[in-house]
Amino acid sequence: MLGLVFGALRARWVQALVMVVLAALTVVAAMVAGRAAGTAGRDAARARIDQATVAERTLRVRGLVAAGDRPEDALRRIDSLVDAPVERKAGGMRLPGSLLDESGGRRQTAELRYADGLCDNLTLRDGRCPAADGEVVLPDDLARLLGAGVGDRLQHESGLVATAVPLRVVGVYAPADAGGWFWSGQDGVAAYTTAATIDSAKATVTVTMAALLRPEAFDDAGGLRTGLDRLRGARFEATSGAPALADAVAADRRAVSRGIGLAEVEILLFGGLAIAVAAAYAAQERRGDAARMAIRGLPTWRIRAATAGQSILPLALGSVWAPRLFAAGVVIVAAADWSATRGGVGELMRDVRPRRPLVAATAEVCALGLGAAALFQIVAAPAADVRRDAGFGLAQVAPLLVAAALGVLGTRVLLAAAGLYGRHALAAGRLTAALAGLTLGRRRTAYRIIPVLAAATCVLGLAAQDYAGGADARARRAGVELGADRVLPVAPVNRERLLAAVRAADPGGHEAMAVVVTGPSGGPPVIAVDSARLRSVAGVDGAALHPAAPAPLAFSGTDLQLAASGDGARVRLLLGVDGTGEQVVAEFGPLSAQPARYRATVPACVRGCRVEALETAAAVTGQDHGPVELRELAAGGTVVVAGDVFADPVRWRTTIGQQASGVQVAQGGGGLRLTDVRPRTDRPVDSRLYAVDTPVPLPALAAGEAAENNTNDQPSASVFGVSVPLDLRPAALVPRGGGNGVLVDLEYSARIAAAAVGVIPAAEHPEVWLAPGASGAVVDRLRAAGLDVGGGDSVAAAKERAGRLAPAVTLLGDLAAAGVVLLLAAVAAFVVAAVDRRDRDAELAALRRQGVAHGTVRRVERRAALAPVLVAVLVGVAASVLLRLLAPPPVRPFSDRWPVPEPSVQPLALLVAGAVALALFGAVAVLHPGRRR
């Protein structure tokens, strides 16, 4: 018996080899998918951790230490309670209160802090780091507000029961990396000193600990929550986004494993289908063998074993590592051989099998019924994400079932149309067309391969569309979240200097744009942009952000004359230097009761300044005086502010922030009268009068929570630390802010914040955004303009990072699985073509004997072979279009709720998938081996 089987295998080695290839390809692809699921899940999880925010990766702990206790003991206790793997950590102390200058005339709310590793994370503008008790370093903004520099004396007061701490300024600094891990937790206004200096206050101190967790810490979300509970149980305040990140990491792993696991199931199902087709058509070749063995009197079981063994032995060789697939294959082969060889000797010896319409109709009705059921489930629940379902049902194999059902219909249409076309062509005398049509119409059994090819094309078309749509969505999101094609970080620099430098480096305004990202800690970001360049650089219309406003009160010159009167008062003008944003003060007085002209010298204004605000000396010294009347301001004989401008209420405003106004304004009669008042309020008092050269409320594009105003109050946002009323224009997305952010004009917002009193400096991140195609020369010009530009980020890099996350990995796995399915279908088509070759060659040889030209015979053969392939590919493409029109992709491009406006049908991806399927199947149909002339 084995000798008979091996002899038959040698005679039909092509069919045997194809069965081995089908089984081996299915097994290897399924095994690779199974192993890739674990590896891809781990890689996606690590990518998620690498791209997480600082808040998500950091554990922050704080606690109160009463006066007289040792803060170091509390820090050691916190350290002992943190048992998660830590990459970096930094302890610190905080003492709330206010800083006063030596005269006591200037006061600014600011914490006194100590932080581990401070000197490694700052850039000194002047001086050095604190080393001895009583030494302190100040940030740029705080030093400016206090008017303090290196060597000046300050005092920190922290309440009635605390000891005032004398301080000496030894340095002025800026953060070395304002967006880095160290400074992310250093919110608020603070001066930094030594731990012993804070202890000397004899006051209640807040101790802090920040720990940057290692990637392996996020393998255990439960352990992270237990650690937080342990810290809270010890009466410490502990906050971290780490447990939520750990949950997201676990979800990513499950999603990748389940998504690629379902792709593995898809490969196994289609591999089984391809084996079934190959076995069925190979069994047709063995009908003669069964007849000859029956004539020799062999029992039925031996006949079945001899015929089925010709497929079972190659199947065993190809599926040696997959016993379950082999067992299923044995059942499939046995059923196919039983169906093909169950007739009598006379029936088995016939070349044409008797038609069994009931069997064929039953199979086709079942295929159509399953396709309809799958289509109904898709329509009934279009938004279901099958990748989140641990079960397995019709939704997972819907593409196969729908495409196979449409393939059955397509086969029926092809056969009927081919026969009709052949008869009409024969009557018209078109021999080639007639023979091709009639050949197609007669060979009914061979065209059952159409549903298989259609299903494979559909799977590939869906996977290609989903992957292309995901790539497009990731590219768009990267552009929105980044803001522009390339973003270059800039070392801390004045806003006006940043604007001037970028405009000088790109005078045309088409390649580069100055941007400053700020906003309250934990709130929506505020993105201040040079709105005139926004369309060229970021593709967003920024015209609404920069409406017309009163011209700045600008001048050039060093000698100022002020026509004013006041009983012993002094007047201070706050001036902004053009191009640098440096703030200088011109002071006039003391004023007499009678109108007179007073002079002040401002050397910094030789190239231009503008008036930002004015105030009386009482706002600084606290001395009482009568009203002040202002009539005219001139520079070098040129009038800067005429009397009618002083008298114009449109050109001046009081505070717009949270402070109470400490000045009473009366205008008219060709001048301006200021009277200091002391409002009864607990709020800070702002006694400055500001020049109006910006629109107020400030126009803004806002998205998400920033665009919502659920009260009747004027919407506002913290812009550079100033609470500014906004004129909101809602938007779905804003550059850099995405679905939650505020976009304002940089020039206007910088002017509003420039001279504001009591501003708590917010974290600022100056940047330069570059347009697509911006030349490298513009970066060199930016550096030549004085900007310290870093390497930055780009949309291409952001896309690459997003491509390593779970959704992209799952979509790529689906595309790879679709490629395997296409290969399996091609091998099955090869079997059909090889089995059908004998009868086809005999028919064509008969036509040659009857005088039909060789070229005509070849054309008939080629058309008859390619027509089913063309129909199958068209049906598969149509099925993929239908499925995507009815339901969105089962795997979203993002794990969060980021909107995906991509169209469900991707024409280019669909065209490429159809072309690949047509080329592969067409080559198999036309270029099969053994062709005879």
Polypeptide structure, described:
By secondary structure, the protein is α+β, with helices and mostly antiparallel strands. The chain folds into four domains: 57-250, no CATH class; 358-482 and 793-933, no CATH class; 491-548 and 696-789, no CATH class; 554-691, no CATH class. The chain contains 27 helices and 35 strands. Strands 31-32-30-33-15-14-34-13-35 form a nine-stranded mixed beta sheet, with helices on both faces. Helix 26 (854-886) packs antiparallel against helix 27 (907-926). The longest helix is centred in the first third of the chain and has 44 residues, at 242-285. It is elongated, with a radius of gyration of 40 Å.
Write the layout of secondary structure elements.
Blueprint: H1 2-11, H2 13-50, H3 54-57, E1 58-65, H4 71-81, E2 86-95, E3 98-101, E4 107-109, E5 111-115, E6 122-127, E7 135-139, H5 140-146, E8 153-157, E9 165-175, H6 181-184, E10 190-192, H7 195-199, E11 205-213, H8 221-233, E12 237-240, H9 242-285, H10 287-295, H11 300-318, H12 323-341, H13 345-349, H14 357-380, H15 398-428, H16 431-442, H17 449-482, E13 486-489, H18 495-505, E14 512-518, E15 526-529, H19 534-538, E16 554-555, E17 559-566, E18 571-577, E19 583-588, E20 596-601, E21 609-616, H20 618-621, E22 628-635, E23 638-641, H21 643-646, E24 652-653, E25 660-661, E26 663-668, E27 671-676, E28 685-686, E29 689-691, E30 698-703, E31 716-719, E32 722-730, E33 741-745, H22 746-754, E34 765-770, H23 776-784, E35 793-794, H24 795-802, H25 806-849, H26 854-886, H27 907-926
Parallel strand pairs: 5-10, 7-9, 15-33, 25-28, 30-32
Antiparallel strand pairs: 1-11, 1-12, 2-5, 2-11, 3-4, 3-8, 6-9, 8-9, 13-34, 13-35, 14-15, 14-34, 16-21, 17-20, 17-22, 18-19, 18-21, 21-29, 22-23, 22-27, 24-29, 26-27, 30-33, 31-32
Helix pairs in contact: 1-11, 2-9, 2-11, 2-25, 8-9, 9-12, 9-25, 10-11, 11-12, 14-15, 15-16, 15-17, 15-26, 16-26, 17-24, 17-25, 17-26, 17-27, 18-23, 25-26, 25-27, 26-27
